[in-house]
Each structure stands twice: as structure tokens, then as C-alpha cells.
Amino acid sequence: MTLAQRFSNRRLLVDALALTFGIGAWIGVNGIFVQLPLLVENAPEEWHLPVYMTLVVQLANIGPILYSFYIKYMSRAHDHLLIYILLGGGTIGMICLIFVHENTSHIFGKESSTALLSLMFVAALVGCTSSVLFMPYMRNYREIYLVSYLVGEGLSGFLPSIIALIQGVGGNAQCVETANSTADNPSYTEYVPDPRFSTSVFFTLLSVILFLSFSAFIALNTLPISRGERVKPPGSTEALPTDPDAAPTFKINSGWKMPRRTYIYLLVMMAVICALGNAVLSGVQPYACLPYGNVAYHLAVTLGAIASPLAMCIGFVVKNPRVDVLSLLTAGILALAGFVSYLAVKSPAPPMQHMWIGEFVVVVAWIIVSGLIGFVKLAITTLFRPDPGRGLFYTGVATQIGSLSGAVLMYCLVKFADIFVKYNPCDDFAGVPSS
Fold first, then answer.
1. Does pLDDT of 256 surpass 90?
2. Which of 45, 98, 255, 272 lies 20 to 30 Å from 247, alpha-carbon distance?
3. Dihedrals phi, psi of 106, to nearest 5 degrees
4. How far apart are CA 396 and CA 40, in angstroms?
5. Which pairing describes strands 174-177 and 110-112: parallel, antiparallel, or unpaired?
């Protein structure tokens, strides 16, 4: 089949609309996370901010739960109206972030980033609900457009990272002697150079992208050219297993079966991977990276966010990943996670600090672990996709259990355990221990 024949079978405008629609799924959450190197500098939570943000994302899973009740008890679901509300609310929330992301308030006697965390919840509500709403909506269209949507969803992590790379962080923090400093009593203050453009400009760019995504969905739902690419809803549903204990295996397809032990093993693997990728590593990242400088932290966050969707692209080539290979890759993930956690525990004085090799190692480690996590998650999902039972449902459950467990664990460790210590570059000059 020639290239012209391939494109003659589809409407490129519908491809573009589906792709742009997919970008809106997670761009809010991913965009706020890649701004962490700048946000932690001014937030009252300081280096604890990533842990609070991770918990907020987990709380946003109330969205899929409410949607499940909605489709169960409503005689007719109006999914397109719900998507209008979510994408419209996400766009408005991002616009509000432009102006109020630095606003704080006192809660229980402590200053908190209430505006940032509240609007983070709005962005996370869009992302979490998209998994049960946006993708199923694309079943209304020919299957070829689902790939376009998935590419767009991958770009929701890629685009904010590219913008953040262009933005930069201005350089590493510097210590400047204060006016009241004396030879007997030296005093220093931390100075952080400005990035190429501010966080407000960054959120403005994300607002424009989200508005385009919202507009793309309106066009996808209303334009005659896109409505002409719709298909009739399927007339049958997949059979579900009624008694999982009645047979020793779970059928994957007519020619291959997965042993129950492997089935459970992969679900546990998914839970562990998601606990690390969605909660634990983001919680320790400031302590593992910032002692090596703002630039190292910035590159670890942005390049790591790029590595994950790029690694997922391999999943479109590797159709049947082997379980033993996934086990080996998971072992590598655990080793790298242990390494960066060790660096975090050693803060404020990790090994190879103030050396270029230290910055290089921590950034490369973060890129590799992010890419491996993205690939393994997609590979496990690929193995469960042909399951005629509830394989994808169970992978979703494992994902949420792992993510929630990791978020609660990191909150307790960071909030109540005296394990991670913040690094202050000016303490090196003052000769006092960091706190």
C-alpha cells in the first residue's frame, strides 16, 4: 500500500483534532510537575512540595469513581458534556494559575500553597478522569484515530518538558554576602538567577495549548467531517470471568494462556513500578538532585519527563514483551531507584557534590529510570490488553494501589521522619550544618 493510499483512508483533519484533544489529558499535571525546580524556591512547603502535589493527584482519583457511579445510575450518559466541563475547567484552572500560583494562606497555623495545590487538583481531575472518559469516547470513531489520540496523550508530557527546557532555571544558586556581614560574623543570602521567562509565562503557554485542546474536542464532536468518521457502537460486550478460582489459568487469546502466578506477578510488578514512578521518586527528587545544583534538578525533571513517553514508543514496536525481560528491567529500576534514594538520604552532602561528574551521573540516572518505568508500564499493559476478562481493569487497580501506597509512604517519611535534609548552598560559606 502506497503512502497516498494510506492517507486516502483517513481524514487528516480528524487526526489532527484527535491528537490535539489527547494533549489536553495530562498536560496540566505534567506542566506543573516540570515547573518544580522553580516552584520549590518560593513555595512555603519548599522541598516538601512534590510530596503534597503527589497526594493531590491521588485525591483526584475521586473523578473516575464519581464517573463510575454516573454511568451506573444514569439511564443515558452524556460523555461529551462531561468532557466539555473537564477540559473547560482545566483551561480555566490553568489560566488562574498564571495569576495566583504564588498565593498562600494560613492553614492550621502554617503557610500553605493553597492556590497552587487547589488548581493542581483541578488539573489532576482532568488527567485521572481522562483514562475512563476520553479514551472510551474515541471508540465512537474509527480505530485508526485512536492512535492519533494516544500520540497526543504522549505529547502531553513531551511538550511541557520542551517548553521548560527552553525556559531554563537561570543557573545554579549563588551565595551573596549581605550588607550587615562582617569579617567576624559573615552573613550570606541565597540568590537564584532568573530563567529565560517566568513561571507565569510558562502557565500562559500551557493555557493556550489547553484552550486549543478544548477547541479541538468541540470541533471533533460537532464538525460534519469528523462526525462522518464515527462508527456504530458495538453490539456486544466482552465476557467477564465469573469464577477466577475455577481454572488454573487466565486466557489471553485462543493460542496462548498466562499462568495465574505470572498474572499476579505482573500485577504486583505494575503496583511497585507505579509506586516508584508516580510517588516515591518524585518525592525524593529534590533531595537527590538539588545538592548538585538547580541545573541538575531542572535537567533531571525535564529530560526524565521526555524519556518516559519516548520509551513508551518502543511499546508500539515490541508487541509481545517477555516476562523475564520485564523482570530484568524491573530489577534495573529498583537498583536505580535505590541509588537515587541513597543520594537523597545523603543530602545535604551526597557523593561527588560540587563535581561535574556528580551532576552528570544524577541526571543520567534519572533519565534512564524514567524511561525504564515508562516502557515497563506500557509493556505490562500490552500483555494484559488481549485478556478477554478484566485484565486492563486489574492493571488499573494495581496502578492506583501502587501510586496511593507510594504517596502515603513518602508523605509520612518526608513529613514525620528525620531522613531527608534540605541543602542550603550558603551553609558551605557560613560553616553551619544544613537544615
1. no
2. 272
3. -95, 125
4. 31
5. unpaired
